[in-house]
Structure formats: structure tokens, C-alpha cells
Prior knowledge:
Layout: E1 2-11, E2 14-24, E3 29-33, H1 40-47, E4 55-60, E5 63-64, H2 69-74, E6 76-79, H3 91-101, H4 106-119, H5 135-146, E7 153-157, H6 165-178, E8 183-188, H7 191-197, E9 200-205, E10 208-213, H8 215-222, H9 227-235
Parallel strand pairs: 3-8, 3-9, 6-7, 7-8
Antiparallel strand pairs: 1-2, 1-4, 4-5, 9-10
Helix pairs in contact: 3-4, 8-9
Amino acid sequence: MLQVTHLSKSYGKTLAVDDVSLTVEKGEVLGLLGSNGAGKSTTVRMLVGLARPDSGRAWVAGHDVQTDPIPAKAALGYLPETVTMYDRLTLREYLEFLGPLYGILGEQLEERIDEQVARVELERNIDQEMGTYSKGMVQRAALAGATIHDPPVLILDEPGTGLDPRFVRKLKEWVRELSEDAAVLICTHVTSFAAEVSDRLAIMHNGSILATGTLTELRVATGANDLEETFVRVVEGW
Length: 238
């Protein structure tokens, strides 16, 4: 459902992403794990059409992101690392705006809004302007918007940002639920989060994918005891 081949991107003399290739299948969660500045967000921006690669290609649900962008984006749910919402809109108004963009109308839209708002536990705040929301509430509202159309491909960039521990636990459950019918890519630097939700992991450092595999495969290969130690050993060349 998500395929990336040989993506590269430079900013001036800085090589931000270096020949990255990866795939995510339906029913799978791939954790893209790397420190801040590893190139994760730049990679994601190319996957969602917000940045043009210097070389390489990406496909979302079979659609080339560069040559067939409209159906590619229609098949995609995206939560950016830094969420910006419409402060003067209520959450209800925001979702009523998004729904028709994906062809969701009438009673179907009302049902989807009710489902999404309940899932992120913002029922009491649905008619409150989002400019008054806390950071965690904004993150939850953005999650509701990113998945209102049941996208077959979901990309979440640091999804736990601003969330309290209780909702982080719920988010992990939600990701597993969503992945039953979708391909999910999660970018994070939090090893515990990646370990709990990912079927496979891709460890990124200095713009390159250094290792991919299940947690067990990576631990065996590096001789590490947990994902944190595995990450350190991979980055240091074990």
C-alpha cells in the first residue's frame, strides 16, 4: 500500500535523505525510528507530496505521489509532527469541512464525526473553538481529522506529542485497530512507543535506513536486550 524506492533529498549542501527505500503492507505497522534530525520528517513530507524528492519515487495505494497526486492524497491520512489547526473553527466545523473533501456527505458524515469525536474523547469540546484547546486536545482533534475518511494508508509523525500517558495508551490501541484495514507508518524517536505498536522497524540515522526487521530480528542481529540498546548498536555500527 505504501512503497518508496531510492528517495533522496538535499537542502543546499546538506543531504537530508539518502537513498531511502521501504514498503508498508495492508495490515502492517512500520515504525520509522530515528533521533531528531535523522531525516524522518523530510521523508514523510516527500511521501505526502509536501516536498519534491531530488530522486526516487513513492506510491500511495498504487498512485505515484508526484505524477498522480490527487488520488494518492485521497488515499492518505497524515498527522504532521507539528500540528496547526484553524483556531476560530470548532472541532465539529473542522470535520464538517474535511468530510466533503473526501466525498463524505449527509448522514454518513454525521456518523463519522460522532465516531471520530468519541474515539478521541472530545465530545464535550466538539463545539468549542480549537484555539482554546490544550496541546494534547489539538493533537487528538488532528488525529480525528486525519482518519475521518478511513484512509488505506496512514502516516503518523510523532503521534504521541502532547498526549497524556492515558491517551498514549489509547493511541497504541487505536493504531493496532486501524492497521487491520490499513498500512500504517509511524515516525518516532520514542523507542518504547515504536516497540509496542510496530510489526516491523526501520532504523534511520543521518538520512539513511541502516536496518529493518522485526524487533526480534534486530535484537538477534545486534545481540541487544531491548529496542533502545538495539537502536544504539545499529547507529554505532554494531
